[in-house]
User: Which sequence fits this backbone?
């Protein structure tokens, strides 16, 4: 009988867990070892307690989160009343379309990780779960992959047939921009430890909203009465002033209603995109963009008319889209956007242009690996900012808390424009050049989100040194190119490296899809 292949997964967050699920549900038997540097298995940094606070919400509703052994709502119903009380949740409150705190999802993932491993062992797999094991290097050899590990008891070496690098997000502990020193938002205590004063928040994404809400909780209290939310400072914290600074000075819009499972699109659907792929890379971006414009013109003709004729072209679409968003206003328009989103959910009527963009970006992803260099650059410059804005819908509770800080006179948002500059001040703060001139902050918190990084930035020097091309971009099936004399394989699902060519990879549904892709390739490599 053929022995089980020895596979290592480095990291124990969602990407690792969905990869393990794909392997353990296949036909082959594995000796699977999962290494994790922290003591929390299954949840990953974005969902880990200690890194995040319980008032930071995931922007995917329950039903959108791919199940591991069971859906989130089923797991919640299986918890006892004391657990639900601890989250201020009644059993009747559990809903497949609700949003939940990220650390609560972390508890779900940790529980599901244990259940997944138990089920795998019952199916005949050997599964080793090793928390507090830090992988320092991966050395490809003629007999497999050698891993140098720092264990709780000292250094050790492990060997495997195949390795999956699923190390998740990577954040600098002391970020910089230009000549300025910024504050990292992780762990969240970096935010809450900031004294009340003039605090800047760089970015206007979901990460920035988490930062704003954390500052509100650190220096005051949110009073919630149904849908009405207000904020009051704690005594001695009245000097709190928060300014979001971003290139365009707009925020993502509130979550809106859309049918789930998704309804099929008319024009930019997978079969249509696949047909364009078969025609080759020349003109591919233009052809798929034309499908998206057809979808928008058909689904939301009034919206497209408001954008104007320039929105019918790649070169003009982003400018028209953001001009429309900027015309509606920043924080002043957020309440109106929230009311429209609430109406959308109450009536179960979607906002058609947002739905078309939300769905369209998923099908655009099918072509990204196949774009030539010039079209890839055009996509990044002209379309990616739109997609990044439209899929970052914000849970309503987070929007209400942001508005409460705005109503209290504590929060504003200012665009930097194209002439932004950042530098430290002699007083120990940071100066930012915006369209309103230079503004000085006591501290500037970096909330721009995860940046992409090349494969050569992986923290495994022997692996990088052995690669055929350390500058390669990671593409499906995510196997790194190694010399032919090397036995075995290394697959890269590390988030910064994946983002270089897969910019939509951070959601849980994307983690599930990428993990299944790698698992399928490993299972087929027998």
Assistant:
């Amino acid at each position: 009988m053929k022995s089980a292949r020895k596979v290592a997964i480095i990291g124990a967050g969602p990407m690792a867990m969905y990869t393990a699920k794909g392997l353990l549900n296949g036909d082959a038997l594995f000796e699977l070892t999962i290494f994790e540097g922290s003591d929390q298995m299954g949840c990953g940094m974005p969902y880990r307690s200690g890194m995040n606070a319980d008032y930071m919400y995931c922007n995917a509703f329950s039903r959108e989160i791919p199940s591991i052994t069971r859906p989130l709502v089923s797991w919640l119903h299986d918890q006892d009343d004391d657990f639900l009380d601890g989250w201020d949740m009644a059993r009747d409150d559990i809903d497949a379309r609700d949003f939940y705190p990220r650390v609560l999802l972390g508890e779900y993932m940790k529980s599901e990780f244990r259940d997944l491993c138990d089920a795998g062992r019952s199916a005949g797999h050997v599964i080793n779960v090793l928390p507090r094991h830090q992988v320092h290097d991966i050395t490809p050899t003629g007999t497999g992959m050698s891993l140098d590990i720092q264990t709780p008891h000292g250094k050790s070496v492990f060997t495997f047939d195949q390795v999956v690098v699923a190390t998740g997000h990577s954040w600098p502990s002391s970020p910089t921009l230009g000549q300025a020193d910024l504050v990292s938002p992780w762990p969240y205590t970096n935010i809450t430890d900031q004294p009340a004063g003039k605090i800047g928040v760089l970015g206007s994404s979901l990460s920035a909203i988490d930062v704003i809400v954390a500052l509100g909780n650190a220096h005051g209290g949110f009073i919630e009465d149904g849908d009405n939310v207000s904020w009051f400072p704690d005594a001695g914290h009245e000097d709190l002033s928060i300014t979001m600074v971003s290139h365009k000075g707009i925020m993502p819009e509130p979550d809106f209603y859309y049918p789930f499972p998704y309804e099929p699109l008319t024009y930019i659907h997978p079969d249509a995109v696949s047909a364009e792929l078969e025609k080759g890379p020349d003109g591919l971006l233009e052809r798929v963009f034309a499908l998206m414009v057809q979808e928008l013109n058909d689904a939301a003709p009034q919206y497209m008319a408001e954008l104007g004729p320039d929105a019918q072209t790649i070169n003009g679409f982003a400018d028209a889209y953001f001009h429309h968003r900027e015309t509606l206003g920043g924080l002043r328009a957020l309440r109106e956007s929230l009311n429209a989103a609430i109406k959308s959910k109450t009536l179960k009527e979607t906002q058609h242009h947002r739905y078309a963009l939300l769905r369209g970006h998923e099908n655009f992803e099918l072509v990204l690996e196949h774009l030539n260099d010039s079209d890839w650059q055009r996509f990044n410059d002209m379309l990616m900012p739109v997609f990044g804005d439209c899929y970052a819908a914000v849970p309503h509770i987070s929007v209400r808390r942001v508005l409460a800080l705005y109503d209290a006179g504590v929060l504003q948002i200012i665009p930097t424009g194209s002439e932004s500059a950042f530098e430290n001040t002699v007083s120990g703060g940071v100066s930012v050049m915006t369209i309103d001139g230079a503004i000085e902050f006591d501290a500037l918190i970096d909330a721009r989100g995860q940046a992409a990084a090349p494969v050569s930035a992986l923290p495994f020097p022997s692996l990088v040194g052995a690669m055929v091309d350390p500058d390669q971009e990671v593409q499906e099936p995510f196997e790194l190119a190694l010399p032919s004399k090397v036995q075995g394989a290394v697959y890269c699902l590390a988030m910064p490296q994946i983002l270089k060519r897969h910019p939509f990879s951070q959601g849980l549904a994307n983690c599930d899809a990428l993990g299944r892709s790698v698992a399928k390739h490993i299972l087929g490599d027998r």
Notes: The first strand starts at residue 5 and ends at 10.
